[in-house]
UniProtKB/TrEMBL annotation:
It comes from the Bacteria. This is histidine kinase. It catalyses: ATP + protein L-histidine = ADP + protein N-phospho-L-histidine. Keywords: Membrane, Transmembrane, Transmembrane helix. The keyword Transmembrane helix applies.
């Protein structure tokens, strides 16, 4: 590619040398060498610098089509061109190398920061349910006859809640790993969006005891052809996020809609909403709002965005004027005929 760029430029210059002059051709060829230094590694850059010098000598410096140079001034210019082309190539390449190292250093620092954030989150989010499970099991084992049925059932309930919490965090970590590795491939099939919403609500029942979730199924909603697994996980994470980051007695509303080409899912709450200066970061991996409630690894919303984009969809977030947040999913999909008419 570097050779072709030099040759192509030389051919153009050869047919226009009467207009620009052979000295101007040297500047044009130097520009091409600079472009090569930006695009390629050092060997092709040095090759293009050498080739451009030889081409300029053979085809442009009088007398043309031979290696002789008629005047001392042109000899000096040729050697200056040769030196400048090589210096230009090497310096540009070194600048690129330095910028690349600087970029890698920043990425490394960012990775370390993310790694520390993950460790800090996991130290709480995984240890807490594990400690709860171990403690409850030890209590049951150490007091097989002293525990009342009520206390035993409470311990079983704690084990169940902690297990669900632990499973949720592991699922989030696995989902993020799949997203990072590019392994998410949507499995498109017909599904009922109303049923997916009901399922996501049911999965959040244990955490939603102090919240009110309102969902009115959309009648005559056609079947949609999307990945039901990814969509249900998106719904679960959005509902769970609303439960976790809104005050008690908050109302969470879920709405469905569709047009000819897309289905729309809205998850709305009447909580405090998001700080304006943090809205653009809420979908970032491991990002947690300042002064947010304890708990969570900061993966839920980044997974929502990743799964949505895996289905070629878009997610929007905006604060409501009356207070609270409004998440809107827009996912391209196919639709079946009206379900009621099919049943008839």
């Amino acid at each position: 590619m570097s050779v072709l760029l030099v040759v192509f430029t030389a051919v153009l210059c050869f047919f226009s040398v009467d207009l620009v002059g052979y000295r101007a051709v040297a500047l044009i060829l130097l520009l091409v060498v600079s472009v090569n230094a930006i695009l390629f590694e050092i060997f092709p850059v040095m090759l293009s610098a050498l080739l451009s010098a030889l081409i300029w000598n053979f085809f442009f410096i009088p007398p043309i089509l031979n290696w002789q140079i008629a005047t001392a001034e042109d000899v000096l210019m040729f050697f200056m061109y040769f030196v400048i082309a090589f210096i230009n190539a090497v310096l540009t390449y070194q600048i690129r190398k330095f910028e690349r190292k600087e970029r890698e250093q920043k990425e490394r620092e960012k990775s370390i920061k993310l790694y520390n954030s993950l460790l800090n989150s996991l130290s709480h989010e995984l240890r807490t349910p594990i400690s709860t499970i171990i403690g409850a099991i030890d209590t049951i084992k150490d007091n097989p006859t002293k525990l009342s049925d009520h206390n035993r059932n409470e311990l079983y309930s704690e084990i169940e809640i902690a297990s669900f919490r632990l499973n949720r965090q592991v699922e989030n970590l696995l989902s993020m790993s799949r997203l990072e590795a590019g392994f998410i491939q949507p499995k498109i099939d017909w599904c009922d969006l109303n049923e997916l919403v009901f399922s996501a609500i049911k999965d959040n029942e244990n955490d939603a005891k102090d919240h009110k979730i309102v969902f009115t199924p959309k009648e005559n909603m056609p079947l949609v052809k999307i990945d039901s697994g990814l969509t249900e996980q998106i719904l679960f994470n959005l509902i769970h996020n609303a439960i976790q980051h809104t005050p008690k007695n908050t109302t969470i509303i879920i709405q469905l809609d569709d047009n000819l080409t897309h289905c729309f899912i809205e998850v709305i709450d009447n909580g405090k909403g998001f700080p304006k200066n943090e809205i653009e970061y809420v979908f970032d991996k491991f990002y947690r709002l300042n002064k947010s409630a304890t708990g969570g690894t900061g993966l839920g919303l980044s997974i929502v965005k990743g799964f949505t984009e895996a289905m070629n969809g878009i997610i929007f977030l905006e604060n409501r004027k009356e207070g609270g947040a409004n998440f809107t999913l827009k996912i391209p999909c196919e639709f079946s005929k009206n379900k009621n008419s099919e049943n008839e």
